[in-house]
Design brief:
The protein is of the alpha+beta class. The protein has one domain: Alpha-Beta Complex (Cyclic Phosphodiesterase, Chain: A). The chain is built from six helices and eight strands. The strands form two sheets. The chain has a four-stranded antiparallel β-sheet with strand order 2-1-7-8. Strand 7 and strand 8 (about 165-175) form a beta hairpin. Helix 3 packs antiparallel against helix 4 (about 90-105). The two termini are about 30 Å apart.
Length: about 180
């Protein structure tokens, strides 16, 4: 089974993100996030394949005994003129949680990838852009009032892939 580990956004930050995705995708012909079923999230561990999820779940259960903390989401950034995103500002604690997750997964044979090791937390607005549309998307986002949110980092969740583009929440673990 193909899984990914994420932090799920909720409340006003989730609504704002979904609105941006629904606005940018059709306007600029970048439909990846509209056509997929990905929820609004910050990736903690990029997709990987396992036969059984029980060991992964036990690791997350141990990590989520921690207290929830507040993080800041908002403002815009981009990677390589191909991914536009909302910025995520984390404290040392959330960064340590992600590092601990990667270390523990490695112990059970789920090898870290470059994106896991050089983690840059973000919430994707537009992905796999055509080069000719990225500048238009970036200009469009630059005209928007950047909304900023203070939200709780209160979950670590597992996404499971069903078919080609169908990702669903498989299990959600709450932080105390």
């Amino acid at each position: 089974m193909k899984l990914a580990i994420i932090f799920l956004l909720s409340g006003p930050s989730e609504k704002y993100h979904k609105r941006l995705v629904k606005e940018v995708g059709p306007k600029f012909g970048e439909m990846y996030l509209i056509e997929s079923t990905l929820p609004s999230h910050v990736t903690l561990k990029i997709p990987f394949t396992v036969k059984n999820s029980k060991k992964v779940e036990k690791i997350i259960e141990r990590i989520t005994h921690d207290n929830k903390t507040k993080i800041k989401v908002g403002g815009f950034g981009h990677f390589r003129k191909s991914v536009a995103f909302m910025k995520v500002n984390l404290s040392k604690r959330e960064k340590q949680i992600q590092k601990e997750l990667i270390i523990e997964l490695n112990k059970i044979g789920i090898r870290p990838q470059d994106h896991d090791i050089n983690w840059k937390p973000h919430v994707t607005i537009s992905y796999a852009n055509k080069k000719e549309t990225f500048d238009k998307i970036w200009k469009h986002l630059g005209k928007k009032n950047e909304r900023k949110f203070e939200i709780f980092f209160d979950n670590i969740s597992i996404l499971k892939k069903y078919g080609e583009k169908d990702w669903r929440i498989y299990k959600e673990f709450k932080l105390n």
